[in-house]
Amino acid sequence: KPEIEAARASISANMHRFHERSGGLLNSRLETFTGNRGRLDCGTMLTWDKPHCDIFRKFLAHQAIVPTVNELCGKGFRLDHLPLAIIQYKGAEGFDLHGGNTDE
Fold first, then answer.
1. How far is CA 27 from CA 24, 37, 75, 80, in A?
2. For the whole model, what pTM was predicted?
3. Helix, strand, coil proportions of the chain in percent (round to 5)?
C-alpha cells in the first residue's frame, strides 16, 4: 500500500532520530518479553520535515485504523503521550500493550 511505503520511506530518512532503549527505559518487566537488546523508538515523527511527518499525522485518524484501535483499546481511546514509531529487530525486548479508554 502507498501509505506503508510512505511510512517506510519517512522512517528510513529519519533513522538518526531513533534511540535504543536500555536499562530503566526498557519497556517490559515480564521475563517473557526480555530480549538481548532494547527496541528503537522515536516520538518526534509528527514534527519531522514535510513530507515525512504527513503520513504519521494521517495515521492518527485513519479510517482503516480507528476501528481496530477501538476494538483493541475500547471506544474512546486516547493519545496520552506522543505517539512512538517503534522498531524491533530480532532479539529485541517485547512490548506490553497498555492504555485504553477511561470511561469504563
1. 8, 11, 25, 16
2. 0.74
3. 35, 10, 55
CA gap 39, 62 in Å, rounded? 25
Task: Kindly tell me if the per-residue pLDDT of 79 is higher than 80.
Answer: no
**37 pairs with which residues across the strands?**
92
77 SS3 class: coil
The 10s digit of each residue's pLDDT in 63-78 is 888 888 888 877 877 7
Three-state DSSP at 70 gives helix
According to DSSP, the residues that pair with 40 across neighbouring strands are: 20, 87
CB 83 within 8 A of CB 60: yes
Q: Interior CA angle at 8 toward 5 and 36, to 5°?
A: 140
Q: In what order do the strands lie in the sheet with 19-20?
A: 19-20, 40-42, 85-87
Task: Please state, in angstroms and rounded to a whole number, the distance separating the CA atoms of residues 12 and 16.
Answer: 9
Locate all alpha helices (DSSP H) within 46-91, ordered by sequence: 54-59, 66-73
